[in-house]
Give the backbone structure.
Amino acid sequence: MFFNSIEYAIFLPIVFILYWFVFHKSFKIQNIMLVASSYFFYACWDWRFVFLLAFSTILDFVSGLQIAKTKSQVHKKIWLISSVGINLGFLGVFKYYNFFVESFAELLATIGLTPHFSTLNIILPVGISFYTFHGLSYVFDIYNDKIKPCHNWINYSLFVSFFPLLVAGPIERATHLLPQVEKPRSFNYSKAIDGLRQILWGLFKKVVIADSCAALANNIFNNSDQYHGSTLVLGAIFFAIQIYGDFSGYSDIALGSARLLGFELLKNFNFPYFSRNIAEFWRRWHISLSSWFKDYLYVPLGGSRGSMAKTIRNTFIIFLVSGFWHGANWTFLAWGGLNALFILPSIIFKSNRKHLDVVAQGKILPSIKELSQIGLTFLLSCFAWIFFRAENIHHAFAYIKGIFSAELFSLPTMYSRQTLLLIILFFAIEWLGREGNYAIEKVGSLKNKYLRWGFYYVIAILIFVHFGHEEAFIYFQF
């Protein structure tokens, strides 16, 4: 069941009506209903993986209770290692087993050996990387005495399986979401309207922007040997916009859906393509994952404490692990390594915490310096995205080689004027709304109701016109 599907357009209102008008007298029953709805939502993908989700949930729930209960530090570690090991074991088998087997076979082939290893013909459970990280953060926080364990299995199940965030995040923390789960919620009309507005913008990002760019990016990347430099550059830009519209669009729909039900999820994107350096970009892109790796990997490794060499080492570790988290392909490791290289200058010159404010705050236009910084950061991101999108390392290098051809400065041959105009409109709206939680948040405060509703109708019409085949969200594969 995709967020951009007719099924979800039916599912969400039914859940909303049952939640607020049938089971509103007891938040405990509301939680049970949401857990049942979430498992139904997940079963629509593949009912067999519901059992994997349930097992992971029970494992971390029991582990959390046992870690908090036992007085022995050794027993605490045993429960922690067991929970982490089993969770990562499942993730490793489903996501990485074939990659390691095939890579090892290729390595042996370089020295003349021809091994015959068996690979697994299995489907990657949708959302496994996300709900695994939900559970791991919960167990880590209990072990580090940051939170007390949840004693109600329904409440904990809702924290892990809440359908808006189940398959592609944001990666929630128990410190943020569990308190909302464990107390009654009351209907708030203004928050519900705000949720609908954010869903509308998320659908626009996905259906109108991302899917339009996807058609062009796929054509260029899949036939990259047939296009010259300027078209390949445009293809990388189209993919950069596609993945942003696709993933941040999903996050907007997730946050809006949760707000309809009285929950506030973590903000996952904060206008990353208006960043002035790569460090700022990574504070604004996939925020829940970046902060997860910072808290549970970077800081335990020592973070920026100690020598510059250790800081650089830790930076490379989290970026390479982040790349590998995205998928079992050397291209993702290359993408992570490139971003680590791009962020190094700001770490070495201690400017990585320089841009914490909103660019050109309170102004209509940025300065020339800010515009050049944004442009350079965007181009660096686009270059790294080539590895993310490429089928393999050979394809990525062939694509880059094709960019630096004699026709680099000629006119592109593959583009759509309509798509270019939509992209301009999209970034204009994003720029004007960059100080809000999402781009069109302030549209709801417009006093002129004709202007306000006219804007909504234009966005809705554009979604309807571009609505066709239900395209899967990119991050569902991770």
User: Anything to note?
Assistant: The chain has two domains: 25-186, 190-477.
